[in-house]
Design goal:
The chain has one domain. It contains nine helices and 13 strands. The strands form two sheets. Strands 1-4-5-6-3-2-9-12-11 form a nine-stranded mixed β-sheet. A four-stranded antiparallel β-sheet has the order 7-8-13-10. A hairpin with a 2-residue loop joins strand 11 and strand 12. It is globular.
């Protein structure tokens, strides 16, 4: 099944708009230095949490059983979706001329797809985007492309939450060491102490207070060492990092890391 969306980034960020849940980022590096990038979210968790928060605002009951309400919402969601979903998102349909006429962007999008999957038996439903890259320069070009979509009208309202605090993320790999570094954009925090900025920080903290941004890195060889503020575990060829989603959205999380192979 193929779903048609007018814009890759619009599609995924609209998912985030409805998301109060965690986000998972996965990067796999192969022996040739290429690999794949995946970013996904648990759609069911996000949708249920958003619905729960909305309903909670209309229920004046000190004895409200929040767990029971969440379970009832989950049951209702799955009742409305009787079949499993395994869909790809056709991101090439309805692209604006600014992208259609840009060979660099088209090259990136030809190796990128959106997806949505659900399993009723396991009660799992996720959606996101994946991208295949031939080298680290390709990966950095894709990350830069995503960043440039901040001005897309469809997602502009959402991006106002994070745009003023966004950073330039760069990956590097020399066959021995893989690293991620982030540098705040020039002037990106100029309004950091304004009242509006503080209000946005508070809103983001409430929206994502129980959520995490998780990164899983899979290398072509066994990892000798890994370091970074969010490091959780190193296991064989994989390293796992985790950050508070509210801190990540407010650019307060240090997501830099370095992984060295044996």
């Amino acid at each position: 099944m193929v779903l048609k969306y007018s814009h890759l980034v619009s599609c995924f960020l609209l998912l985030l708009l409805a998301s109060c849940g965690s986000i998972d980022e996965e990067i796999i590096i192969d022996n040739a230095g290429g690999g794949s990038f995946v970013m996904k979210a648990d759609i069911m968790e996000s949708t249920v949490e958003m619905s729960f928060q909305m309903m909670k605002g209309f229920i004046d009951d000190e004895n409200l059983n929040e767990d029971s309400l969440r379970e009832a919402l989950v049951d209702e969601m799955w009742e409305s979706m009787p079949n499993d979903i395994d869909s790809t998102i056709d991101i090439m349909k309805g692209l604006p001329d600014s992208i259609k006429n840009n060979p660099e962007y088209l090259n990136i999008l030809n190796r990128t797809e959106g997806f949505m999957k659900s399993n009723r038996k396991k009660r799992e439903m996720e959606g996101g985007i994946s991208h295949k890259f031939s080298n680290i320069s390709d990966l950095n070009a894709f990350i830069s492309f995503l960043d440039k979509q901040n001005d897309n009208p469809t997602t502009a309202k959402f991006m106002k939450v994070t745009k003023s605090k966004s950073a330039i993320i760069t990956f590097a790999y020399d066959g021995k060491t893989f690293s991620r570094t982030s540098v705040p954009k020039e002037g990106g925090n100029s309004n950091e102490n304004s009242e509006s900025s503080k209000e946005i920080d508070t809103a983001v903290e409430l929206m994502f207070k129980d959520a995490y941004y998780r990164i899983r890195i899979t290398m072509p060889k066994t990892i000798a060492s890994a370091n970074g503020p969010g490091l959780i575990e190193v296991k064989g060829k994989q390293a796992f990092f985790e950050y508070s989603m509210s801190e990540y959205m407010n650019a307060k999380a240090n997501t830099d890391f370095e992984i060295t192979l044996k």
